[in-house]
C-alpha cells in the first residue's frame, strides 16, 4: 500500500476545480469547507457527489440536516477558498452570501451554485461520500478557480 505522502503527490497531478460546500447544522450555525473532491453522478435525476472529512464540523452539519450547497469558485475567488480551508471561527465573515433552500448559505459571485438535498451517503475511509440531488442551480460567468500540483492555477483560454 502507498503512503499518505505518495497518495497526495500522485493525486496532486490531477487538476481540479475548487468548490466551497456550505451547510447549516441543526442548531442553525453556518458551516463551510473548501472541497476539491466533487463530481457529477447522474443527469437524470441531477445528482452530484462531494467527499467530506469525517472530523469536520461541516461533515456533521451536512449529515444532520440533509441539505447542502456546492459553490463552484471563480478564478478571482482564491481568498474564499483559503478562508473556508482555514480553521477560522467565522468563515462567513466578510464573504457575501444569500440564503437558499432550507436557509442555506449560497455564496455570492460564484461560477455556479448547486443547492442540493442529500439522497445518499457512503463510507469512504476517513471521508463520507455525500450524494445530493440538485434542487436549484445558479450559473454565473467567468473562469474557474483551478488547483493543480499544490497551487492555484489559471486556465489559458484562446
Automatic annotation (TrEMBL):
Residues 11-154 form the Flavin reductase like domain. Gene3D superfamilies: Electron Transport, Fmn-binding Protein, Chain A. It comes from the Bacteria. Keywords: Monooxygenase, Oxidoreductase. Its EC number is 1.14.13.-. The keyword Oxidoreductase applies. One of its GO terms (molecular function) is FMN binding. InterPro entries: Flavin_Rdtase-like_dom (IPR002563), NADH-dep_flavin_reductase (IPR050268), Split_barrel_FMN-bd (IPR012349). This is Nitrilotriacetate monooxygenase component B.
